[in-house]
Amino acid sequence: MAHLAAHCAFRVGNVFLALPVRAVQEIIDNPRHTRVPGAHPAVSGLINLRGHVLTSISMHHILSGNADPSQVLSLICEFREETMSLVVDEVIGVFNWDLSLLQPTSVAPKLYRKFISGVYLQGERDYLLLDAHQLIDHLMSAH
Amino acid sequence: MDDLLNDFLIEALDLLETVDGDLLAIERGDLSKERVSSLFRGLHTIKGTCSFLGLPRIETLAHRGEAVLVLVRDGHLIPDSDLISVLLKVSDRLRAVLVDLAGSGTEPEGNDNDLLVLLDKWLPGVDQPAVKETSAPIAAPQSPPPPEATPAPVQAALPAEVEEKSAVAQGQAAPVASTDSATDSTIRLNITVLDRLMNQVGELVLLRNRFLMHTSAEDEVLGSLASGLDRLTSEIQRTVLTTRLQPVSTAWSRLPRLVRDTSKQLSKNVDLVMEGENVELDKAVIDAVRDPFTHLVRNSLDHGIEDSASRKAAGKSATAQLKLIAEQVGNQVYLHVQDDGRGIDPAKIRAKAVSKGMLTQAEADALSDRESVNLIFHAGFSTADVVTNVSGRGVGMDVVRTNIEQLGGSVEVSSELGVGTTITLRIPLTLAILQALLVQVQDELYAIPQVSVTELVAVGGKTGTPLQRIGRSQVIHVRDRALPVVSLHESFGMGTCPDKGLAIVCTAGKTRVALLVDAALGTQEIVVKPLGMLLKGLTTYGGASLLGDGRVALILEPSSFMRDVYLQLEEGQLSFDEQVEVDSQKESILVVDAGRRRLIIPVKALMRIEKTDAVDRYSLKGSPVMPYRGGVLPLVDLMEGRAPDHVIICRHRDMVFGVLASSPGSVQQIHINPLPYEDQYVSGTQVVEGKVAEYINLDDLADLALPITQTGISF
What we know:
By secondary structure, chain A is mainly beta. Chain A has helices at about 60-65, 130-140; strands at about 5-10, 15-20, 25-30, 45-50, 50-60, 75-80, 80-90, 90-100, 115-120, 125-130.
């Protein structure tokens, strides 16, 4: 039997992405961001999650170089033992995917390949499986 | 039992847990550099401590294990499960010996030849293990090479990590027998428990603040409850804080013994002097600097300090002095390890870096002496030609740097060949709760630690102190002293410097800087929350804090703003800490050397002073120019063929040009009274500090120059 893994799918602009569900802790509606001058431009700012200060990463900036729109969601995720927020537009839902059907990153636009570990076709849509470690390495090395 | 031994046992047992965890992770395929280094450091630390506690059995075994791990770390050996099994056996044996040691107070009899033979299988060129149970723990090296990287113990993991790894290790490793005898009189608390307590007290303080804000004076009962709560909260806070504070001497307690034993082994005479032992630091900070100090002191003893004969030959006293100094400067603690030894030879460091393949020859040649000396903090850098028990494996200094940087601090080395070396650790006083001034810049609020704020000065408007410009710098005059002003609007990209505002005068180390903000909202106790990994590299912030209304405010680190002060140069060649005296009758001038001439440049024309190099210069239509900030800078060359090392960038009538100079010069206040004297580019002479200096003729020079808009330079 195929091995199914639950994924949380979300949208950023017109790009559809997904993360393993276990990485996502909760979803916050439009939290207040405190800007951090001097930080990497992909850092949207800091948010207060029940007394914890979290760094928020703009997926818009990472994918397109654009600033976040005014209405956003924060996916609260844990990467490398640190809880962070990923700023996205919309959460599509949770899907069980058979990872043996995962397509290689080469089917994705070149621009996004370094941050993803594969592509999953769900319905008519390609979902890019986000590789958070690569993403964080990229942000840390770029700054 | 000896406190030292006790400490060692607790630490070593912890480290073995980490070692097991690392071994198991490596067996599972995690061959990451961090993992292998962590494993290596674990055994290295145990070995290092044993060597001065005189525990030859443990030392020998750990040393042999470490030798195999050197091969793994350097990529010469890929560990297979056989090797992992042997290393786990080594770890189990070490643990058994330690537990025995904890019970009896002496290292148990016996030998580990069975394991040593197994380890030797992986070591090329080693015959039978030459184990001498009774041999002296350390072989003194002959005439040790100059001071560079030293290995030494470093706590490989923070307690939280240890806990996690030990959980992994538990299933595999032999269970630790009771070590009660080592821990009878104290309770070891995981630092995370204290951290949690600290956070909770922090939240309590915030809650109290909000409660007090909403308590009106009219309700007597509520008022008295509120004041009771207020008092109790403050007391709890103080108590919790003091549980975490320890004098820095705690971190130094092992060092006198270390210095005594090691200097004996090396046949050197060393006086250890400690200053500022009572400076108090957070427990977490104390723990984190303990091992770096061991490294640094060992390093100094082994490499920095010469033997008596060489010292005498160099005209120094036969007994060397090793000084440990702690001082609180603003909201930082500076810890210095200072020796009067032979110093570090930058040329030798460069050569070593090239031979190790860390740098190309060209890259090495481009380094200043100061930068070269700082290469000792790079991973794998060791100039020791002989690997000894004391040092030479290149694991020391990079670990020191990593540990200190994890605390948000920095490490610097300054050294003078033949005179000595000083290593300075700068560590922020990151106490979890601090008194801070809240300031507003447009819509954002920032917290400035109260300890660094000296005064607030209203600036601009009808009544405020006027904001003045010196070149590109802005200054205010406070009691006849010029203070550089940094506008947070500009620094943070939030618009241009306002005409009116409030200057927060901060001390940053030995210098002062005024931060210009819109308003101050009063002081508050704030809880320092650390910033995440993506923001760790920003020196501008000491952390973040939550305000009463739930929003996040960044905590500013005033010292970091000094870099925004235009005139500030490397090593304070020209800095405001000399506090240029202002006198309306006088004019501020910069006096620079240009070849054999001395030039006077009015400070009002000054934009920047930059280091330069002869290779940067080109000729454009017969006039000298240099590339600068993306554009072309016209140059005035009065050097008569000598090599300049600075370029003074001036602006006059919106024209920009650079004057080549052999020194960055110094700012003076003088009565302008020149003797008229016309020469090319010069309009008069005046004696300054007993020497003739020439006024540059700004009008002449501006004619040579280019309008800023045409240079392409972005300032």
